[in-house]
Specification:
single chain; globular; 8 strands; TIM Barrel; alpha/beta; eight-stranded parallel sheet
Amino acid sequence: MSIAENIADVRQRMAAAAIAAGRDPADIMLVGASKMNDADTCREAIAAGIDALGENRVQEMTAKLAQNAYAGRPLCFIGHLQRNKVRQVVGKVDLIQSVGSAELLNEIEKQAEKLDIVQNILLEVNIGGEEAKSGFAPADLPEAAAMARRLPHVNVQGLMAIPPVETVPHGNRPYFEKVKALFVDINEKLYDNKLIYVSMGMSGDFEDAIRAGSNMIRVGTAIFGARNYAQN
């Protein structure tokens, strides 16, 4: 199947999940996770109507920016961001989704101040408490959200999460529901209900994420096909 056909198929599945949950499919943003796909592939996804593109690796994103790969659509950074690479990302993307530490928040604030801009971000939640993953622990999230709100060059637009790998069908649904509950709580108590995004759900679980309240999904394999890491 072509990328356009894959996007159409994903959108049909998105719509079915949204309608089953009593939601409007138009309210859910489809981000194409374009890691290890070239600039022409990104352009093909844009031509097929993808809402946004998301990159995991700074070096790859920088190369594709130089090729004008993302023209016409928002660009998100969705991978783990090291502090020493913040300057290569701030001001280059519309949204940094993976902000999961106070140190990273401060580094983004410093770089955005230098550029005299306000950088849109999401706070990443380590909802499964996994040592190998970055992100704020759920218990630490209110303090992190309060800190972020005080930073003049950072604009928090919501939460992002990557739950543990599923071991049973629909196994991530409880994690998605917890993230949604955290979003509602922080939005009401700290952000005057101005937060926008709950970014959760990928190729294998985005329908459950939508049913639990996600309004931004990050889909790679289901759109671009399986990645060949042996060639990387």
